[in-house]
Amino acid sequence: GAGVSQTPSNKVTEKGKYVELRCDPISGHTALYWYRQSLGQGPEFLIYFQGTGAADDSGLPNDRFFAVRPEGSVSTLKIQRTERGDSAVYLCASSLQGGNSPLHFGNGTRLTVT
Amino acid sequence: GENVEQHPSTLSVQEGDSAVIKCTYSDSASNYFPWYKQELGKRPQLIIDIRSNVGEKKDQRIAVTLNKTAKHFSLHITETQPEDSAVYFCAASIGYKLSFGAGTTVTVRA
């Protein structure tokens, strides 16, 4: 079946602009995660959704970052007033139930802020 | 929060030899330990995982061991092949939140 889909695959934006990154999880997966991966590092937790609600947003670096999942399926990560330090690969993952269910990652969106 | 350290950062092995990657974690409450393989430009893919009530798990050429007392776990790849070349990440979690190590770049020399 289809895996986790993320769009766009690449996004180049100017400093100060607003961007939206989209994630389509595996059908039936109730848990959805956003991670950020900088070059040469492991993924870093940003936010976790169980259904429609953000159960844990403690990894969001500051209030420029926000994520939604209004219908419990597709999620959008929104970054306002982008900074060069936001450049990274943003990975979305889903799992069947959350908890210790295995995570299935998308291919990520490579964000470059110039 | 949980802190996961991973060693070595790079590993070069001759094809057919074994590769071992070691990770330590800080929070004794962690109870789930997956390993992910990431090829260049691709998504991390789960290759094996172990839960805290198990000491060892094997899947063909891949095995993982867990020592809860010492808070460390290891990935063993036997009979390495060129397609094993990738970055490998360990992770530890309490509930839903996975904390990843920094990764090990494995190169298998033909």
User: What is the helix fraction of residues of chain B, given as a range?
Assistant: under 10%
Low-pLDDT stretches of chain B: none
Shape, principal axes of CA atoms of chain B: globular
Distance between the termini of chain A: 37 Å
Largest sheet of chain A: 7 strands, mixed
Count of DSSP helices of chain B?
Answer: 0
Rg of Cα set of chain A: 13 Å
Please work out how many helical segments of chain A DSSP would assign. Answer: 0
Q: Report the mean per-residue pLDDT of chain B as an integer.
A: 95
Overall shape of chain A: globular
Structural class of chain A: mainly beta
Multimeric state:
heterodimer
Between the first and last Cα atoms of chain B, what is the distance in angstroms? 41 Å
Which key terms come to mind for this protein?
heterodimer, A: 114 residues, mainly beta, 7-stranded mixed sheet, 4-stranded antiparallel sheet, 0% helix, B: 110 residues, 6-stranded mixed sheet, 11 strands
Describe the structure.
The complex is a heterodimer of chains A (about 110) and B (about 110). With about 110 residues, chain A is an all-beta fold. Helix content of chain A is about 0%, strand content about 50%. Chain A is built from no helices and 11 strands. Chain A has strands at about 5, 10-15, 20-25, 30-35, 45-50, 55, 65-70, 75-80, 90-95, 105, 110-114. In chain A, strands 2, 4, 5, 6, 9, 10 and 11 form a 7-stranded mixed beta sheet that branches. Chain A has a 4-stranded antiparallel beta sheet with strand order 1-3-8-7, with no helix packed on it. In chain A, β7 and β8 (about 75-80) form a beta hairpin. Chain A is globular. In chain B, strands 2, 4, 5, 9, 10 and 11 form a 6-stranded mixed beta sheet that branches. A 5-stranded antiparallel beta sheet of chain B has the order 1-3-8-7-6, with no helix packed on it. Chain B is globular. Chain B has strands at about 5, 10-15, 20-25, 30-40, 45-50, 55-60, 60-65, 70-75, 85-95, 95-100, 105-110. Chain B contains no helices and 11 strands. Chain B has about 110 residues and is mainly beta. Classes of the chains: A mainly beta (about 110), B mainly beta (about 110). The interface of A and B includes residues 31, 33, 48 and 106 of A.
